[in-house]
Amino acid sequence: MKCKNCGARVEKESSICPNCGATVNKNSDYVLLSNQDMVFEDVYSSKKKKPITRAIFIIFSIVVIAVAGIVSYFYFYGVNSAKDQPKLSFSSGYGVINGDEKVVYVKIKDASSIEYIHGVNVYNGEVDETMHKKPQAVSTDYNYTANVDKSFRCIFFDMDDLDLSGKGNQTYTFEMTFSYYNDDNRYTYYKTVNFTSNTKTDISDTVFDHSLIETVTDEPTTDKQESTSTTAKKDEPVDYIYNGYWYTDPYNEADSYSVSAFKFNSDGTFISTDYSKTGDENWVVSTNKGEYKIKGNTLTISTEDGESDELTLDKKKQTISQGNKPLTARKYNSIKNAEDFFGL
């Protein structure tokens, strides 16, 4: 209703006009009070408090949502932080492999729990997880080697792929992402490598695992086992011949050295790598391709040049022999392996 004195809006339950202070009496006329007697009632106080309460509630809700978002982020996306991710140790270096291939590498110590490598970036300069914006990767074309137990050993980049400026000291950073057995998360690690492209140091023994491949040794057999050996031999697999490189008996006369390595593929083809060296000269490396056939315990090889030879398989011991000389199984094919046979 309206005040009859000033026309202002007056709430029904109010007995005083909030604008002019006149007394409101439904049974009589309004009485205009003097300035000294005027009484003002904050009839809108209850309504004015409502917007403030609502604002506080909205602000509180926003704060709660923000805190929940931060907690969720660190819970779901922060699992691969340095605090939570499995610890790994790395070493690094640079040098030459395979005779003339210059590489820079990171070696993983005790990588037996790593299941997959999900990518490796290499950056020019120092880079770490604290950088909000990383530079563009120089290369993602990484290579890796494994140990004889099939765990990861080294990750390396060819220096020719790194767009090196000058021949002075260089600083690059490896960004490596791994996942572990029985763990669906991915974890990223950083390792800075300082190196120079002006190097001739052979690092094959670091990058590659030159350990001998384990072969089956002789075990005593009973008469009963011996009587069934003929049947067993027919089903004995030859998959072991694909597991590495088979080096021939090394030849050394005076200051001349030579040795060959066979790599047999499951499709009936093979590659022979021949290493030869005289005196202090560099190693001469050549390759030949060919085919092979297995009949019983005999492995016959034929090269594209028309040469052929027969090797002997011992499927039980998982060995290959050339004449009466057993071939030596190695995991990798490299000059370092060749040199090892001669103690060079």
UniProtKB/TrEMBL annotation:
| Ranges of residues in domain Zinc-ribbon | 2-23
Q: Sorted alphabetically, which InterPro entries does this protein's record hold?
A: Zinc_ribbon_dom (IPR026870)
**Membrane-spanning segments:** 55-76
Record key words, sorted = Membrane, Transmembrane, Transmembrane helix
Does the keyword section mention Transmembrane helix? yes
User: Per the record, a Pfam family?
Assistant: Zn_Ribbon_1
- Return the protein name: Zinc-ribbon domain-containing protein
This protein's species is Eubacterium coprostanoligenes
